[in-house]
Design goal:
Elements lengths: L1 E4 L2 E4 L6 H20 L20 H4 L4 H4 L2 E2 L5 E2 L4 E4 L2 E4 L5 H21 L5 H12 L1
Antiparallel strand pairs: 1-2, 3-4, 5-6
């Protein structure tokens, strides 16, 4: 399944057996062929692979054939390997489905901005602080 929003495209497929992996590889190549035939340039160096796995056993990870199951190749030969998290429309999505990385990033940025506000502005009245918070942090 291909999903698009603005200039972002996602290929999604449940991988239950090796043939599903091969079909996703073919889908990737078909999208590249379609883009070429429509005079579009895809920046394959920006392609990312996020793999949601229900069973993340360390034993399975170390089997020799597992790297083949979780890797794909673009039309120009770039290897796509799974990443722990990817940014999608401003949101960090983790392979385990948790939001902790995204939340910690937002909290860190808000903390930095709050520190900057307190170092630059001397007025600590609630009205000023609320306006600065709404304008810069939130």
């Amino acid at each position: 399944m291909a999903l698009t929003f603005a200039d972002d495209t996602k290929l999604i497929r449940a991988i239950k057996e090796l043939s599903d992996k091969n079909e996703l590889q073919l889908d990737l190549l078909k999208v590249s062929e379609w883009a070429t035939s429509n005079n579009m340039v895809l920046h394959e160096s920006k392609f990312q692979l996020l793999s949601y796995r229900l069973n993340k056993s360390a034993l399975l990870e170390n089997l020799p054939f597992m790297s083949e199951v979780y890797s794909y190749t673009t039309a120009s030969g770039c290897d796509l390997l799974p990443e722990e998290h990817v940014r999608d429309l401003g949101v960090l999505i983790s392979e385990d489905g948790s939001w902790s990385r995204h939340i910690s990033t937002i909290v860190r940025k808000a903390s930095l901005l709050s520190g900057w506000i307190f170092s630059v502005f001397r007025d600590r009245t609630p009205e000023v602080m609320l306006q600065l918070y709404k304008s810069l942090v939130r």
